[in-house]
Amino acid sequence: MVEYKYSLDLKNYVWDITSISVILLIASLAIIFNTVVLEITFYTTLDFTLKIIVPLVLTVIIHELVHIVTAIMLGYKAKIGYGRVKFAPVFYVRIRDGVMRKHYITITLTPLIAFSTITLILALITPNTLAKEILSTMFIMNTAGSSGDIVLTLSAIKIDKKALIEDYGTSIVSNKPIPKPYSRTVGLILKIITIMLLILIAAQLK
Fold first, then answer.
1. For the ranges 78-87, 170-179, 195-204, which has the lowest average pLDDT?
2. Angstrom distances, CA of residue 108 to CA of 24, 112, 139, 155, 160
3. Which residue, of 51, 118, 192, 193, has the fewest CB within 10 Å?
């Protein structure tokens, strides 16, 4: 039986994850507003429902389904789990008996790479304005919401190639040592960049 005695807890990276989310949010907004639509409008409650609530629900469901389908295609039995990283709810794919490192990285990154790419392409080519705005919102939400996956991947790529990994949503465990995703300096730089971006945005809104 494999002993998983090493762990990485996302609760220690809450502000890093938040910073990455903000950076990805701003970057994805810039991509959308410079390539797909000039704005996403909200004139009525129905607009808000169709352009925020519906995309949010669809994004969460499809994001997790992509994780699951990728895991199944790689030969694993997977199911959805739920946890919390302090104030944020977390859905994750639960796979028993461990995942090979290279497969874990693939399973973790596929929603960011595939789902975001597909929604962006569809948003670019669809002629319908409402569909463009819904797909754009899904692209933004999925991209910005993948920050936890990115942090976990940055640690996973440093783990021994023969390691087995289990994901518990708020943490990962392994039978091999799990290095930190990056140095404290990088974490500090992420926070500084986030603060500077928010200050610039606030200045533009005045």
1. 78-87
2. 17, 8, 17, 12, 17
3. 192
Tokens 């789990």: give the residue.
81
CA angle 76, 81, 84 (to 5 degrees): 140
Q: How far apart are CA 136 and CA 130, in angstroms?
A: 10
pTM of the model: 0.90
Inter-CA distances, 77 with 65, 67, 74, Å: 13, 12, 9
The dihedral sign for the CA sequence 191, 167, 115, 91: negative
Q: What is the DSSP letter of 157?
A: T
Whether the pLDDT of residue 83 is over 70: the answer is no
